[in-house]
Amino acid sequence: MTYTEPATAARTIRPGGPEDTDRLCGLLAEAFQDDPLTAWILPDPVERAAALPAFFRVFVDLSLAHGGVLVGGVGGDFAAALLYLSPAGWEEAQERDEDVQRRLAEAVGSGTAALFTILAMQAAHHPSEEPQYYASFGAVRPGEQQGGWMTGMLGLLVARADAEGVPTYVEASSPGGYAVSLRNGFAPLGTEIRLPDGPVLRPMWRPARRSGA
């Protein structure tokens, strides 16, 4: 993506790059520290806090290589981020599966079995009928949740998908994420992903829309 969307003179949503990796990982780790999904993978909060930066580095690297990242912030401070894979990115990422699994296992340690359970269930539900943009992780820094960041970033992604004539897929892991997805034109897709004694992921789909539709 080659655009920037200013909401005010200091507030922007822009494409992220490799130079942003460390700060992106810190933001994602902070935002997901108390998330039910990461708590299910690593119940111990101290272990979870230590593991999440390396865990998210794997997905930031994948997104930068096979899709992209959107970064929202005020001035130089990061407030939110959206990771996504391009229409070809899901299949491209699968070709790196062995390396990805190794890095993830190194990152989460005792949470490896739980994480791989999630990944297997996500893969089983992932739509394969047609290529799509896949919004894999959205994060907003604590205290910034009412800033409209995720609505803005997801809106930019689906606008790009519409321009290219392809759909968009997301798995909502929270009521807030579900509501944001609905506002951006997504609808529930298939069955929910129910983790054993854990949280629920809600697959959602947005067909491409013609301009003005």
Describe this structure in words.
With 213 residues, the protein is α+β, with helices and mostly antiparallel strands. The protein has one domain: Gcn5-related N-acetyltransferase (GNAT) (Aminopeptidase, 3-Layer(aba) Sandwich). 46% of the residues lie in helices and 23% in strands. A hairpin with a 4-residue loop joins strand 1 and strand 2. The longest helix has 22 residues. The radius of gyration is 16 Å and the shape is globular.
Topology (elements, then pairings):
Blueprint: E1 5-6, E2 11-15, H1 21-32, H2 36-41, H3 45-66, E3 67-74, E4 77-85, H4 89-94, H5 97-108, H6 112-125, E5 133-140, H7 149-164, E6 168-172, H8 175-183, E7 187-188, E8 193-194, E9 200-206
Parallel strand pairs: 5-6
Antiparallel strand pairs: 1-2, 2-3, 3-4, 4-5, 6-9, 7-9, 8-9
Helix pairs in contact: 1-3, 3-5
